[in-house]
Amino acid sequence: MNSSMIKTIVLAILATSLTASLMIYPKESFEASLRGLTMWWEVVFPSLLPFFIVSELLIGFGVVTFIGTLLNPFMRPVFRVPGVGGFVWAMGLASGFPAGAKLTARLRQEKKLSRLEAERLVTFTNASNPLFIFGAVAVGFFHNPTLGVVLALAHYLGNFCVGFVMRFHGGKETSPQTTGLQPNRNFKDAIKSLHEERLKDGRPIGKLLGDAVQSSINTLLMIGGFIILFSVLNQLLSLIGVLTLLSSFISILFTFLALPSELSMPLIAGLFEITLGSQLTSEANATLFQQVIIASFILAFSGFSVQAQVASILAETDIRFKPYFIARILHGIFASVIVILLWKPLYVSQVEVGHDGTIPVFLQEQSWNWIITGWNSLVQFGSLITLFGLLLYIGIRTKRALMVK
């Protein structure tokens, strides 16, 4: 029996087991599915939709080519990717998972990146957005906005380290020259490239906007499916005892790392789904320092749910998933180590109130009002944005279907 046949049998058994589990635990599966749907409906869709639409418009108008021409002298020496990678990096940091993968795949399809360049770029342009780190994790789960600074710095500095390490991916193999990315061009040439790119696209503004909305919502519907699936999968694995079994192995590793075994279950949950893992970590019986180390790893690893979303997006291109997966492990390690290094200077020194009664800036509640207000507004009005977006999507699809007929 060859390896391909064994793989087929294993996948068939896993699919059958999942179906049987759904039938055995219908109530729990429904509740888990509803939790995933709520997260997507209230937070993920409204937070990602504007970034996805704007990024599609910027690509169509040639702004990405313009930015790429200017950033080429920085991005190539540091990360061995073209300057357009700077745009992808910025959008990925601002909007969160899996925007970096979507933009990288799009640029690869347009031949603005070689396969090696795309594989390097996707490894460090997928990150959790600041609103989730500060609003959901620091404020929502830990009820401590000061932790947001430590978690965010560890997360983004870790991403930078991953990008620098992954520049060696492919060894000394040179990437073929990609279109519109010639190095050492001045500002005038960048403006010319912007104009040429817009003319090359050729779509009128109305068509470009409609395509941007349709493409963005298609991607978000796929993301929603993965969020719901992994929310159910995580619940089923917990019910049948698989997570408990895995956590026992992690507990052995934690004894060598001087971490309490109580954090093993939250870590296992976080390996599957980032939100649930972060929440369980904040509730675990451990010191705050230990909790933050694990939470930082979970945020960086991003969970199999996000990784499945990225794999689905990359499957439309020739970009391999393996470098991305390796980078997530590296990111988790880097982020955890950076938390250890930054804990005393950025957190301990901030929570120690001075002898004269002064309170550090990071602890003044008004300093964090914009984060708390932003997160609460997203949760409150996110469902309305999602509903409007879906209605707009249905309208565009209906209109185009009628035009075809």
TrEMBL record:
The chain crosses the membrane at residues 47-71, 121-141, 147-166, 208-230, 236-256, 292-313, 325-343, 378-396. It comes from the Bacteria. Residues 43-140, 220-315 form the Nucleoside transporter/FeoB GTPase Gate domain. The keyword Transmembrane applies. The keyword Transmembrane applies. Signal peptide: none annotated. Pfam families: Gate. Keywords: Membrane, Transmembrane, Transmembrane helix. InterPro entries: Gate_dom, Spore_IM_YlbJ. NCBIfam families: spore_ylbJ. This is Sporulation integral membrane protein YlbJ.
